[in-house]
Amino acid sequence: MRMAAIIEYDGSGFCGWQRQDGARTVQGCVEEAFGKVADSVVPVTVAGRTDSGVHACAQVIHFDTEVVRSSHGWLRGANSNLPAGIAVLWTGQVAADFHARFSAVGREYRYVILNRSVRPSYLARRVTHEYRPLDVKCMRSAAQMLVGIHDFSSYRAVQCQAKSPVRELRRLDFERRGDLVIMTAVANAFLHHMVRNLAGVLMAIGAGEKPQSWAREVLDAHDRTLGGITAAADGLYLTGVEYPPHHGIPRLPPVSGLW
Fold it and tell me: Distance (Å, rounded) from C-alpha 117 to C-alpha 120?
């Protein structure tokens, strides 16, 4: 049978999602935990791989197994074998045609910026620090130039392996909450480093380093080398994966003191 699960993790203690020889990864720890519950090897498939230092509030996986356990048994058993920094929030049996990655119709990320002159202390590695005052209204206006279906070649990593650079960016917005500036990005799917590259361009605009029109100029150039810096992984969270309702994957609201 095919099982799905929703997990959260603090990415600062792992070398990204994807399993790597000799490295501590989220996938490696999750597969080991579920494997102990099943007493067998349990490879898992993820909705979206995250880089080293990137966090998740509602990552989705699936795996196939012949072992019969209740949903509660899978959840409790996995959590008892997971290290600090990873937790399973939900498990459930799904149809055989469900695929954590290819069945998804949308993804949401949030990028959290501590915008003050002093660097973070207890929030270190959980927020990105920008000491220059950011004009959120200006960033929001520039962001609207990027919403829609576009070729995002300028906003993806040079090493991105996606066959097409075209994505539908459905929402890109900013809000300020005290010293925190929060960027929310929603798309059908994202390219490698796309969210961090969007943040890098829009932070430069918010700091007055570039005009608002630069966001669109970078987009139209279709050239990553003209896109400015890739913002740090610190502060980036995968906050949701959307599926058609018939798959029965719940949308869990993020639980965080950052928003």
Answer: 10
State both tokens at 200.
């890098």
Could you tell me the two tokens for 121? 């202390």
CA distance readout (Å), 156 to 57, 95, 164: 23, 33, 11
d(CA 167, CA 109): 15
Q: What is the pLDDT of residues 180-216, one digit of tens each?
A: 999 999 999 999 999 999 999 999 999 999 999 999 9
Q: How confident is the model at residue 251 (pLDDT cuts 50, 70, 90)?
A: confident
Q: Annotated catalytic sites, by residue? A: 51
**Domains located in the chain, CATH noted:** 2-103 (3.30.70.580), 106-238 (3.30.70.660)
| Termini Cα distance of the chain | 37
Q: Give bridge partners of residue 64 from the DSSP assignment.
A: 2
What pLDDT does 254 receive?
Answer: 66
Q: How far apart are CA 242 and CA 64, in angstroms?
A: 21
Length of the chain equals 259
Q: What is the C-alpha separation between 57 and 7, in angstroms, rounded? A: 7
Mean pLDDT to the nearest integer, 112-116: 97
pLDDT at 236: 97
Alpha carbon distance 199, 202 (integer Å): 5
Sequence-ordered strand ranges (E) for the chain: 2-9, 45-46, 55-64, 86-94, 106-115, 128-130, 148-151, 166-177, 180-187, 236-242
Residue-wise pLDDT tens digits, 130-143: 999 999 999 999 99
Question: Which residue type occupies 81?
Answer: N
| Separation CA 258–CA 98 (nearest Å) | 32
Three-state DSSP at 159 gives coil
